[in-house]
């Protein structure tokens, strides 16, 4: 795809987000779109967000668990950028009815970095040494593509289907918890709807962050000190609507909860 078409697609996705009007899949409209094209489109979408006053505060890794891969029929990880306008704190209401179109919630472990990580060559030990703390998290993903009919290029172009996220109110040293075996329980409106473990995300959430640092490193892009890194869902995506209340509990780490309006 040439730059003009890349910019046009990025602008369309940005306007779809602002207007809350979904688009036909890019992969239906442009049969030759590549993963590289899709990442360039996502950067154009990000440019528009930054021009509107948002700032990057982290990155997210998507499509890491088999449950999510099978649900979306997308079978490799991707990544997107987090901005300050996506972030909510524990106890805040999340206005999905005003901000999102097709929201789905997923429980995750968030990494807060204290040192930069620039791949390639980053190891799991490097990731742990660079991490200030881990926190429980709900990411509420959204798609600007009609009916979530996405292929990998569609979700990458759409900033890895980023929506909004909320961090819990407890931070834990990642060296004091087994991130591969820690269990997760997700409740919705008082009922348990799913369970998972850290190993669901590429064997461990640490593996996900290592993958991201090395993948971005090939393009000279670091994970930066102070950034929030969402490491990928450990459970299936759950559709949500205004009025729902969800909580996630992660063994050894803590809990996060969110009420949707």
Automatic annotation (TrEMBL):
One of its GO terms (cellular component) is cytoplasm. Its EC number is 4.2.1.80. It comes from the Bacteria. Pfam families: FAA_hydrolase. Keywords: Lyase. PANTHER family: 2-KETO-4-PENTENOATE HYDRATASE (PTHR30143:SF0), ACID HYDRATASE (PTHR30143). Residues 74-259 form the Fumarylacetoacetase-like C-terminal domain. It comes from Nitrincola tapanii. This is 2-oxopent-4-enoate hydratase. The keyword Lyase applies. InterPro entries: 2-oxopent-4-enoate_hydratase, Fumarylacetoacetase-like_C, Fumarylacetoacetase_C_sf, Hydratase-Decarb/MhpD_sf. The keyword Cell membrane does not apply. GO terms for molecular function: 2-oxopent-4-enoate hydratase activity.
């Amino acid at each position: 795809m040439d730059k003009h078409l890349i910019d046009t697609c990025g602008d369309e996705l940005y306007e779809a987000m602002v207007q809350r009007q979904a688009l036909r899949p890019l992969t239906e409209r442009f049969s030759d779109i590549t993963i590289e094209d899709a990442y360039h489109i996502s950067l154009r979408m990000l440019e528009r967000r930054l021009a509107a006053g948002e700032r990057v505060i982290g990155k997210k890794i998507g499509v890491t668990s088999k449950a999510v891969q099978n649900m979306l029929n997308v079978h490799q990880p991707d990544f997107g950028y987090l901005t300050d306008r996506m972030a909510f704190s524990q106890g805040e209401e999340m206005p999905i009815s005003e901000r999102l179109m097709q929201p789905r919630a997923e429980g995750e472990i968030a990494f807060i970095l204290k040192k930069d990580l620039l791949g390639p060559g980053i190891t799991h030990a490097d990731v742990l040494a660079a991490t200030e703390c881990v926190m429980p998290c709900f990411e509420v993903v959204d798609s600007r593509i009609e009916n979530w009919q996405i292929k990998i290029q569609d979700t990458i172009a759409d900033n890895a289907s980023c929506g909004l996220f909320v961090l819990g109110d407890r931070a834990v040293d990642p060296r004091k918890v087994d991130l591969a075996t820690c269990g997760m329980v997700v409740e919705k409106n008082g009922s348990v709807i799913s369970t998972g473990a850290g190993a669901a995300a590429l064997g461990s959430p640490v593996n996900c962050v290592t993958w991201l640092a090395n993948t971005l490193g090939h393009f000279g892009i670091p994970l930066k000190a102070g950034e929030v890194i969402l490491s990928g869902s450990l459970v299936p995506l759950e559709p949500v609507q205004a009025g729902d209340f969800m909580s996630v509990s992660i063994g050894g780490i803590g809990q996060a909860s969110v009420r949707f309006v």
